[in-house]
Amino acid sequence: MSYLIKNDIQNLFVSSTNTSSQLISTTEVTLNGSEVYYTPHPQSKKVIYEYNFSFSWYPDTGNLLNIQIEQESSGAYSSLGDEWRRIPPGHNTSVGAATNCSLMYILDPWQGKKGTRLRARSHSSSWETTAHITRVYHQSVLDKPVFPTLKIYSIIGD
Amino acid sequence: MTFFNSKISAIKTIRALPNTQLSSNSWQQLSGSRITYTPSKDAQNVIYQFSYGWHRSSNDDNLAHIKMVSGSNENEINSSPSDVFGVNFNVGASNVYSRGNVTFKRIIPAWQGEKVIQLNFRHYSNSFVVEMHDIDYWNGIATSNPINCHLLIYSTE
């Protein structure tokens, strides 16, 4: 029996992660909600990985993050390479400085289940930030949660 | 009650590693954003999604104007690009932290046959220069690190 795939998107996985805040300092950490163990569709030509998260100015008024995407092979993660590096929008004011950032990567497909995640650190110890919260809200200091979202799917077309 | 059951089709992707680009007072193609595309036969809309990185140049201040343009072929889009109505945006900042990543997504009405579409950019003035497709700070040190960009396009019926 043969099957005809009519939809060009397959194996869609989405998540919104209920997570606590995450201090991003000069020690690299995995961004909460970014890690997924995913099996591409056997006929996929590409895999699309999309991640959205927020971060706020606390503890430093100036913020700059470094983010790199890693993939797992035989249980060990490694970077996809320097050209895959990303810097979310930086900012430099207290109270008002908050950013929402969307990242999109077109990945080559792989066989079987493999982990993918984003690693982040601040550029320096004076440019640290806190992810997944608002920090201020309605004229007061209030850490409202901002859940990160993840979407990953296989492309059957070009 | 209304139900929407859109079908996604004619998906294309491009991942490119362009040379870095400096903005100027003239419009230029944002490398990696160009695609020759034919919407699916019954398409109502085309979804165009492009992700790229940028940073400040010699000054903290920077401001890039970006617009989508189209042409019936590469010669036409090179010589006389047509602005796509309603697809314009600015990206900029004014401090030492001025750098970032943009993931730009737009819904545009579908068309018949093949077209070339892309993003063009220029800066506000010569005091607001932007450098595209590059990272200048990483892990605590200044660097020059070209980065890739990602384009996804598809039709919805």
Describe the protein.
The complex is a heterodimer of chains A (158) and B (157). With 158 residues, chain A is mostly beta strands. Helix content of chain A is 0%, strand content 49%. Chain A has strands spanning 9-16, 22-24, 29-30, 36-38, 46-56, 62-63, 65-73, 76-79, 91-92, 98-107, 114-122, 129-131, 136-137, 140-141, 149-155. By secondary structure, chain B is mainly β. Chain B has one domain (8-156): Sandwich (Jelly Rolls), CATH 2.60.120. The chains are: A mainly beta (158), B mainly beta (157). Chain A binds chain B through residues 6-9, 26, 45-46, 48, 50, 62-64, 66, 82-92, 101-106, 121, 123-124, 127, 155-158, and chain B through 7-15, 17, 49, 51, 53, 55, 93, 95-101, 103, 135, 137-140, 145-148, 150-152, 154.
Low-confidence stretches of chain A: none
Give me the CATH architecture of chain A, please. Sandwich
> What is the CATH superfamily label of chain A?
icosahedral virus
Overall tally of structural domains of chain A: 1
Structural class of chain B: mainly beta
Contiguous helical run count of chain B? 1
| Main pleated-sheet profile of chain A | 6 strands, antiparallel
What is the count of β-strands of chain B?
Answer: 13
Largest sheet of chain B: 6 strands, antiparallel
Distance between the termini of chain B: 20 Å
How many domains make up the 3D coordinates of chain B?
Answer: 1
Low-confidence segments of chain B, given as residue ranges, are: none
Which overall shape of chain A is indicated by the principal axes computed on the Cα atoms? elongated
Give the fraction of residues assigned to helices of chain B.
under 10%
* Radius of gyration computed on alpha carbons of chain A: 17 Å
Cα shape of chain B: globular
Radius of gyration of chain B: 17 Å
Q: What separation lies between the terminal Cα atoms of chain A?
A: 25 Å
Relative strand content of chain B = over 45%
DSSP helix count of chain A?
0
List SSEs of chain B in N-to-C order.
EEEEEEHEEEEEEE
